């Protein structure tokens, strides 16, 4: 986005993964990554997966996406999902999927165990695919009390929509430590300011797509994304903006008091917060605290962006909370898996994936 300053320099947040003989991050590497995560809310572990391991993850994603009966996720943008701008779905708890998830958790145990106890549940295993024409999500926090990870199973470029983070905006992060009680209000002001830009950016992009000669939008898509009354928190929907029915961004966020505060604190906000866009290479894994401000940008390339994702609760999550904020596959709901269960799985070489293995 031209109007917003977005840094693509992620070097401060990267830690090269170093594994010990047991296949886990070495103590030094885990401590270094944990320090980055604690102060910034996220950490980028480069080369955690080999090319072959990432290929297994990619195949799991492909097989899931090809399944017409796949379990679609309820978060992100429902309208993008409907028009196949995104395809977010949960993965079944098959042997291969759970083995892949276990490999990631076991390697990252030194970091995740600082937040999650063995009894805490695995909330979901999902795949996040976005296509050309998807919307830029509003800056948001995921439901609190969760550690999530994204594994890049192919290279993800900035144009494909590598996740944007606002470092230090997690609760008890650097913003809280530097600004104390005032920090939450400043963070919210920055979020409103950024979401205003995202709203204009998404709207302008849809208008451009509509006015281009090629039929880049499906019949009814412009209406559903801009003028619909249907619930969706990540579209530039004018109707819901005016009615104040979008909890991420609506006219309710632009009252006179907020506008005055945005003006009054403009320098502090500008100095305190900045957007960083990731572009993870194949085999990179990003871990983040769910209460960190972040967004999934639009995919501006003809190549799908594919990520493997999973989330683990930082507390003994109640079933109601689990279902409300995350999208467990029915097989995971039927047979819950804890962080301890996944750590105890024997470390095995990942098999090549066939379509038959996905359903066994
Ligand atoms: Fe999110």
TrEMBL record:
Gene3D superfamilies: q2cbj1_9rhob like domain. It comes from the Bacteria. PANTHER family: PHYTANOYL-COA DIOXYGENASE FAMILY PROTEIN (AFU_ORTHOLOGUE AFUA_2G03330). This is Phytanoyl-CoA dioxygenase (PhyH). It comes from Sphingomonas jatrophae. The lineage of its organism: Bacteria, Pseudomonadati, Pseudomonadota, Alphaproteobacteria, Sphingomonadales.
């Amino acid at each position: 986005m031209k109007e917003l300053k977005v840094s693509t320099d992620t070097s401060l947040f990267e830690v090269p993964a170093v594994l010990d003989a047991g296949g886990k991050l070495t103590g030094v590497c885990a401590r270094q990554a944990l320090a980055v995560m604690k102060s910034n809310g996220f950490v980028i572990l480069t080369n955690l997966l080999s090319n072959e391991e990432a290929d297994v993850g990619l195949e799991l994603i492909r097989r899931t996406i090809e399944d017409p009966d796949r379990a679609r996720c309820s978060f992100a943008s429902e309208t993008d999902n409907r028009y196949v701008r995104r395809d977010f779905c949960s993965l079944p708890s098959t042997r291969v999927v759970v083995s892949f998830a276990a490999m990631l958790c076991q390697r990252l145990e030194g970091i995740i165990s600082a937040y999650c106890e063995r009894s805490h549940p695995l909330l979901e295993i999902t795949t996040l695919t976005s296509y050309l024409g998807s919307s830029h999500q509003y800056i948001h926090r995921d439901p609190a009390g969760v550690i999530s990870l994204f594994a890049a199973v192919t290279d993800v470029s900035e144009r494909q929509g590598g996740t944007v983070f606002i470092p230090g905006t997690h609760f008890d992060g650097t913003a809280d430590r530097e600004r104390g009680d005032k920090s939450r209000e400043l963070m919210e002001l920055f979020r409103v300011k950024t979401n205003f830009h995202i709203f204009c950016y998404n709207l302008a992009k849809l208008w451009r797509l509509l006015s281009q000669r090629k039929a880049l939008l499906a019949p009814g898509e412009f209406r559903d994304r801009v003028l619909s009354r249907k619930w969706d928190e990540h579209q530039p929907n004018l109707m819901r903006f005016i009615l104040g029915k979008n909890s991420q961004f609506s006219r309710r966020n632009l009252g006179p008091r907020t506008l005055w505060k945005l003006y009054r604190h403009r320098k502090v906000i500008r100095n305190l917060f900045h957007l960083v866009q990731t572009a993870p290479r194949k085999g990179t894994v990003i871990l983040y605290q769910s209460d960190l401000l972040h967004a999934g940008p639009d995919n501006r390339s003809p190549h799908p962006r594919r990520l493997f994702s999973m989330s683990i609760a930082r507390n003994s999550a109640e079933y109601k909370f689990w279902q409300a904020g995350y999208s467990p596959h029915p097989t995971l709901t039927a047979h819950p898996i804890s962080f301890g269960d996944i750590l105890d799985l024997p470390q095995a070489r990942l098999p090549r994936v066939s379509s038959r293995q996905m359903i066994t």
